[in-house]
Amino acid sequence: MKEDQLTFDPQTHIYRLNDVPIPSVTQIMQPLSRHKYRDIDEETLNHAAERGTAVHSAIEFYDRFGLDECEGEARPYFEAYLAWNRKYRPKIISNEQPTWHKHLLYAGTVDMLAEVMGKLTLIDFKTTATLNDMLTTVQLEAYRRALDTQDPYHPIMQTAILQLKPDGTYTWKTYKAPDLEAWQTFTALITIRAHIIKYGG
Length: 201
Fold this sequence. Notes:
The chain has helices spanning 25-28, 30-36, 42-65, 75-88, 133-150, 180-198, and strands spanning 6-9, 14-17, 20-22, 91-100, 107-116, 119-126, 158-164, 170-175. The chain is 43% helix and 26% strand. The chain is globular, with a radius of gyration of 17 Å. Helix 5 (133-150) links the parallel strand 6 and strand 7. The strands form two sheets. The chain has a five-stranded mixed sheet with strand order 4-5-6-7-8, sandwiched between helices. A three-stranded antiparallel sheet has the order 1-2-3, with no helix packed on it. It has a single domain (6-198), classed as Trna Endonuclease, Chain: A, domain 1, CATH 3.40.1350.10. Helix 5 (133-150) packs across helix 6.
């Protein structure tokens, strides 16, 4: 049997499983994110997204190759990551890992999977000024459930947000796993998305 293949086009932000497009966690969560960011102009959001991408890339290159090449606006956020790394000494399993849910057929990219203080932990990096549990709990649980369908023998013991700040400090916030409320919300969003698509929205 041919092995399933997940691909991601960074230009269009489209995931494909065996060449068939499937929705991303971000797309499914749009009703929540639109509500959260409804009062923020698009230019500000785009700038924040670009900064976040730069920080994510710097972290990945550092963890994989030991390269410290982060400069400019992203540098203080990267310094915050280095401070967290020195304190917690994570045993990193993967960076920027694309994954998909084998049954519900959605996809996403997990920022980091690591053993932290002896616990297998799914970590998402944030460079936003504030954290919002309405979004983060749902996002983390969606990723966690997807990974569990790929490897049910190594269950994720906790999820976490590592918020990196422009002053070089960080906030480390862990969440319970599983999170039934977050999962119910995410599956409701899947149902809403399917209903909109069915009726031509």
